[in-house]
Amino acid sequence: MGGWKEHRWCWGDLGLNEGVLREGGFGNILDDLKGRLEAFEGWKEGKDSVVWRGNSESIFSVSSCYNFYDRLRIPFGPPKKNDGVFGFLWKMDVPFKIKAFGWRLFRNRLPTKDLLLSRGTPLSLDNLKCVLCGICVENLKHLFFSCLVVKNIWREVALWVGKVGIGEEDGLENFMNWHRFFRLKKVKERKLGVVWLATNWTIWLLRNGVSFRKDKWSINDTIWNIKMIVWRWTFCGKITHSNFSFYEFSKDPLFFLS
Ligand SMILES: [Zn+2]
After folding, report:
1. What region, left, alpha or beta, does residue 149 occupy, with left being phi > 0 and alpha being psi -120 to 50 degrees?
2. Would you list the DSSP string of 82-130?
3. So what's the pLDDT on residue 86?
4. Any idea what DSSP says for residue 204?
């Protein structure tokens, strides 16, 4: 392509076959290119080197790299209504695996039957059905919020804590609905989502038990399981009430969560 001759860069044939180009009618373009290259001054003899262009000092630093990529970041539009949900979730006094479960629920990442089918698991129409009601196809929204059986579970839980209504059928909306209720009841910040997570976690375990082990179950047992889980999780994080039994707790959960 070219080389240094007496401290001056001389272009070679540029890797192009001049004869063929001129025959093909590209002579003018070739001459133009050569003229531009010859006119370019300021070459200095030396080895190539890598230069960091991320800051004015041309010295690489992690922060300048972060800033560089931050400038390229495309914002996801204006903030959405329930953007804060994930912040609330990570703050909850519940085992880490439950927070991860909550995250998967919000993101529709739990292996519900509709998702398994879309990923290639062969499931007959019968096998696609929700194991709790046996009527509808199981998807995340149905399994946790719209199934008639599950709605009864939510109603019982609402009754237990004195809440009117069971909330929307969308996961994020539903979480915020219950979150607002517990905040109004002066439940501690880190306990606001505990009942909600315990209910969904129990529904998930119930569904797995019925699906894989053909477990026998009843709404009544399920509600007691939820209460038991919430009671156990009241001992996660900073404990402000002590020496209370499950029996006392189940009578007045809001007192012990506040
Ligand atoms: Zn169902």
Report:
1. alpha
2. TTTHHHHHHHSSS-HHHHHHHHHHHTT-S--HHHHHHTT----TTTTB-
3. 85
4. H
Using the mean position of ligand 1's atoms as its centre, give its distance from the Cα of residue 217 in Å.
Answer: 14
How far apart are the CA of 162 and the centre of ligand 1, in A? Answer: 25
Q: Which residue has the tokens 């129409």?
A: 125
Task: Read off the pTM.
Answer: 0.69
Dump the DSSP string for 53-74: -SSTT----HHHHHHHHHHHPP
Q: How far is the CA of 201 from the centre of ligand 1 (A)?
A: 16
Q: How far is the CA of 222 from the centre of ligand 1 (A)?
A: 15
Number of H helices, E strands in the chain: 13, 2
58 CA distance to ligand 1 middle (Å): 61
Residue 256 is which amino acid? F
Per-10-residue mean pLDDT, the chain, length 258: 76 80 86 83 74 85 81 66 82 92 92 91 88 94 96 95 91 92 91 94 96 91 94 79 78 84
Rounded Cα–Cα distance for residues 45 and 149 (Å): 79
- Which residues crowd ion ligand 1, with CB under 5 Å? 130, 132-133, 147
